[in-house]
Structures are given as structure tokens and as C-alpha cells.
Pantothenate synthetase
Amino acid sequence: MNQIRHAIDMQRWATQQRSDGKTIGFVPTMGFLHEGHAALLKQARLENDLVVLSIFVNPTQFGPNEDFETYPRSLETDLDVAKRHGVDVVFTPAASEMYPQRDLLASMSAGEAATKLCGASRPGHFDGVLIVVLKLFQLTQPNRAYFGRKDAQQVAVVKGMVKEYFLPIEIRTVATVREEDGLAKSSRNSRLTEGERQEASILYKSLSVVETLIKNAGDSTSSEAIENKWQAFLEENLSLGKVDYATLYSFPDLQPVKDLSAPWIAAVAVQFPSARLIDNVVKEGGEE
């Protein structure tokens, strides 16, 4: 396994491998790897000749009052995880490598889909995500890139960028990996207090409530009525956390739901004192 720190070296390596006819699977991360990331690496390993993992805490996707400085980092442990999962190259650039001329930083708009859900409370977040993902795609030149379904909104905006810019990259998604009580694996889970951690399982339980409500909904049941019951369930069971959103949208276009038999996403975010957590369930073409 090789560790590459410089952008030009990463691009040269990828160019050579593609010239040799090798396929590259790419897993972009901000590090502090957990079982969810491992699932992405396993899938990439199955489907490609080579696997590239990036570890970069991207400053442009954090707002001024967010957790960039305190985001958990564990590079040496992450390198061990990468090696165990057969990663060929770990790309670990500094911010100066990814943004060598900050005063010339191009802006990107992630569009309307990025103004909802997480985008509503984190303005500019997905614009920053797209900037760094596009740069990483240019450097790693993957055939396929792997994302977790927990980050469904991120997947939707990345797919939109790939389509808009005619990028020859297949975006692959992998099922959310969960704790025994259903909590979605996340690097931010490590920051929860004991009480917050116990309460955090409510996110997943609430999604099960939504699925039941939709399954039992009559023809006249509105998505707003389901959301109201969902939010009431959350508020009744949360004392430490505050609901940021608990919303039903069509998927992947993120519009108000008019037909509950069509593809939809039920997405929830809860702000705890120590961390903000998200989760979702997607019904798309009969597949979760």
C-alpha cells in the first residue's frame, strides 16, 4: 500500500494506471474510518483492479460555526484500516495541495436540491462538497466512486454534478452500516456523551415509525400529516437532542411528496450538544 501526499503525484499515478488498462475504485472520506467506510472499501475491492482511498477533512464544506477544528482525526489508525482492506493507494493531501490558490477558488452551486434538508441549515455545505469531490475525481481518475446511502443527499448532488459535467464515473452506493440499536455508523458518534449516545438510537427508530405510517396510509393521507406524527414522536423521545428536520421528499429530486407510491426519502437530522447526526431511509423503485 502506498501513501501519496501530493496532488501531482496522485494524478500521475492514476494516469499511468488508466493507461495500463486498470480500473480504479475511489472512496473519498474525511478519515476517522469506521465499519461504514470499510463496507465501501470492500465493495470497491470487489469491483475494481485498484482501490484508492482519500483522507481529507475539507475546509470548504464547513461553516464558520461548525466543527472543522474538532472533527475527529486518526490518520495512523486509518492507514491500518486501509491496509487491512486491501487499499492500493491512500491519498492524504494537505489543504494547500487541494486549494493551492484560495484567492482563485472557483465557486460551484449544488443547485436547488442542496438548499433542502442539510443544506437548509448548512448553507454552502454542498457547494464545498462538490468543489472538493470534483478536484478528487480529477486527481484519482476513478471508474467508480463509492458513497454510503446514509449521505443520500450528498449522493444526489454528486450524481447531478457527474451528469452535468459529463464525467465518465459511475457513482456506486452501499447500504448504511448500523450499530446493534440501529444508529448509523458515523465518525461523529465518537463525540457523543453516554446520554446522547443512548438517545441517538431514536433517529433510526423514528424512521421505522415513518415506514409504518406510510405503509398504513390511506389515499387521502398527506405527507404533511405523516411528517407531523413523525416529528411528534421525535420530540416526545428527545430530551438532549433537538430536531433539525424530519422531512419526506420525493427522491432524488427532493420535491414535496405528492404520491407515496413513488420513490421517496425520509430524512432526519438531530442536533445534540456534542454532534449533529443524520439518517434516512430511501424507497426507490421498490428497493431500499
